[in-house]
Design brief:
- With 395 residues, the chain is of the alpha+beta class.
- It has four domains: 159 residues, 3-Layer(aba) Sandwich (Molybdenum Cofactor Biosythetic Enzyme, Chain A); 53 residues, Alpha-Beta Complex (Molybdopterin biosynthesis moea protein, domain 2); 78 residues, Beta Complex (Molybdopterin biosynthesis moeA protein, domain 3), CATH 2.170.190; 68 residues, Beta-clip (Beta Barrel), CATH 2.40.340.
- Helices cover 19% and strands 30% of the residues.
- The chain contains seven helices and 26 strands.
- The strands form seven sheets. A six-stranded mixed β-sheet has the order 7-4-6-5-9-8, with no helix packed on it. It has a six-stranded mixed β-sheet with strand order 16-13-17-21-20-18, with helices on both faces. Strands 19, 22, 23, 24, 25 and 26 form a six-stranded mixed β-sheet that branches.
- α3 runs parallel beside α6.
- The protein is elongated, with a radius of gyration of 29 Å.
- It is an enzyme of class 2 (transferase).
- Pfam families: MoCF_biosynth, MoeA_C, MoeA_N.
- Keywords: Magnesium, Metal-binding, Molybdenum, Molybdenum cofactor biosynthesis, Transferase.
- It comes from Qipengyuania spongiae.
- Catalyzes the insertion of molybdate into adenylated molybdopterin with the concomitant release of AMP.
Length: 395
Amino acid sequence: MTAPIPLEEAWTRLLAMITPLESEMVAVDDAVGRVLAEPLVARRTQPWADLSAMDGFACAGEGPWRITGESRAGQAFDGVVTSGEAVRISTGAAVPEGADRILVVEEALVEGHELAATEAPEPGRHIRRRGFDFASGDILMEAGQRVSPAGLALARASGNGTLTALRAPRVTLIECGDELVADPLECPDDRLPASNGAMLGAMASQAGAIVQRIGPVADRKSALREAFETARGNDLIVTMGGASVGDHDLVKPVLEELGAELTFWRVAIRPGKPLLVARWEGTLILGLPGNPVSSFVTGKLFMLPTIGVLSGEARPLPVPIPIPLRGSLPEGGPRREFRRARLVDGEACPIEQRDSSALRALAQADLLIDRPAHAGEAKAGTPVPCYWIANGANA
């Protein structure tokens, strides 16, 4: 049996196996979560003209001024403002030709058509200059960026109705184990409600994948072989459970019988060592451990980057954030460890429970602390690399 390989080597070997999917045209309103295959280019200039950033008066020169009209959003003042004149103006309305400053309502003194200021506005005050956000032809997002809700707004505001994005990966999740029951309401005490498939499915969906779930699949070669046949042709197959060395861990032998090419097996991390990576007829296969925390951690470290590369992400690997420790951590063991932690007042507070089956501790966690093998003691206040896992805390 070969020794577990380091995480960085596993990442390098995994990512080298993956080719981004083909691109397609997507309606802009359907593009959130998709990765751009081509840059997003502005088709218009924003703002289209000099606009007022405040409600008030567009003034020419030093006051006092005489009010000669109004400029509203969507209905600009039709004329020129000369020195000593002003027009009423609303937020987002075009600044008339000749006006060089905005006097806000709160600082205006109005008597009939006469206008004065409690405090004289400086030239250029409260004016959003034409094109300060973007100009027609500007590249607003590069290829490889994932479209966020803010990116959707940017695409629409820049005049785009469609985007060129990579196809969403088709991912099949196969949950293995005789002990698992699909319906949590009909689960006897001596068995377990299946949870990994739902958890990994939610993670994959949030990453932009189209998810198919199979299982629970019984610990029989024929049942597992049938599940693989059902998943045939998808972009990624992820199994949960059955990837270790027990008598009932059948993923590896079944893949070998199907003619799959095993790329590597076992990674030197805790939790999640019995990770398997293979290719079967052009489909990438990730065999994740069955313990839920191990499944989550390897899903975070391997499944999500795989989906990212398939989707076209330019930077698919997770990026650690240095966060100071709340409390201390003892010396580390022989394997690199990912410790669950809470975010408390801007500090990473390690959760004492480390068992890889403990779901409550996982659901309470906001972070994974990345502890290198044989790490020395880390004292309170020491910055430690953390991966954000977004379980609900507000950073």
